[in-house]
Amino acid sequence: MLLQLLYPFAADYSFLHVFKYISFRTFGAAITAVLVCMVLGPGYIRWLQKKQIGQQVRNDGPSSHLTKQGTPTMGGGLILMAIAVSTLLWADLKNHYIWICLFSTLTFGAIGLVDDLSKVHHGSSKGLTARQKFLLQVLVASGVALILYFFRDSPPLLKFPFFKNLAVDLGIFYVPFAILVIVGASNAVNLTDGLDGLAVGPTITTASTFLILSYCAGHVMIAEYLQIPYVAGAGELAVFLASVAAGCLGFLWYNTYPAQVFMGDIGSLALGAALGTAAVISKNEILLAICGGIFVLEAFSVMAQVVSFKMTGKRVFRMAPIHHHFELKGWAEPKVIVRFWIISVLLALITLSTLKLR
């Protein structure tokens, strides 16, 4: 919005030329997102408390979590406000990728909102059924995937990291693949959101990493130098992803241990969809699995636990997702959180190194 409003006056006021630079608007979006969370956070948390929108804790979870019963949830709404406000202010609103990412993020957030409200209404940790949630996610992701397929500017390639020329043209199979990435990322982040700040930390590192990847993919000279797919317009996603990372950073002020507010599905489903959509647009789907390795590990632990129990009657972990396994082994909650954050930073560095290891 600011680009459209102020840049036309750059001929008369030279300092307004900075608004044409993605880098400047990326920093502006990040600062704005943090400020939105910091300013609105206290009032938003008080409103949740007043409405008695509290967390419903699993009865079969670690006993230490019982004290969290009633802690305000649906704090992810604060993150979504920060993302929407900062993106609309600082992004180039003529860029269709911005609108696709906002649509995906906010719509998945709406699914999470319905799920959270259902939990609060029924006073249970169970909201929408798995089938209901999955069908809604697939419906939204299908719309996003079809738009990206039919209005693409380049072939629907699946690019493999570490290789200069290895790419597969997915053709029409790009659509189900994109759906898988977006829905998978959404649910993986959702499963990770089980401890104070656990999901927020890796989301910050992953969004920040994809900020760099998207900027490189959208810059023709950098993309050519690094021998990565050039995606015209993808550089603008840096502004959106800065809003995502900074919105999570601002939210972490209130979500860090011991949390004053929980993210809820309204936040976790939306953030996963944001990362998945950005990965599909920038053609870095495989790198999302590397950079978001914590999310992959959490999702895999649940799948392994379910398959093992159904087939053998035995559990692989003491409890799934895997962060609960470490809690039951005696790790303090802050130790689990910080160690997972450290792993996430390491995975982000490995992901960025692939830009030169080809």
Summary of the model, kept short:
With 358 residues, the chain is mostly helical. The protein is 65% helix and 2% strand.
Record keyword descriptors for this entry.
358 residues; mainly alpha; 2 strands; 65% helix; globular
Secondary structure layout:
Blueprint: H1 2-6, H2 22-50, H3 76-90, H4 96-122, H5 130-150, E1 157-159, E2 167-169, H6 174-192, H7 200-217, H8 220-226, H9 237-255, H10 265-281, H11 285-291, H12 293-312, H13 322-328, H14 333-353
The domain count comes to 1
Strand elements, count: 2
Taking strands numbered 1, 2, ... along the chain, how are they ordered across the largest sheet?
1-2
How would you name the oligomeric state of the polypeptide chains in this document?
A: single chain
Structural class call reads: mainly alpha
Query: What number is the mean pLDDT?
Result: 93
Question: What's the SSE pattern?
Answer: HHHHHEEHHHHHHHHH
**Approximate shape:** globular
Low-confidence stretches: none
User: What proportion strand?
Assistant: under 5%
- Could you tell me the radius of gyration in angstroms? 20 Å
N- to C-terminal separation? 38 Å
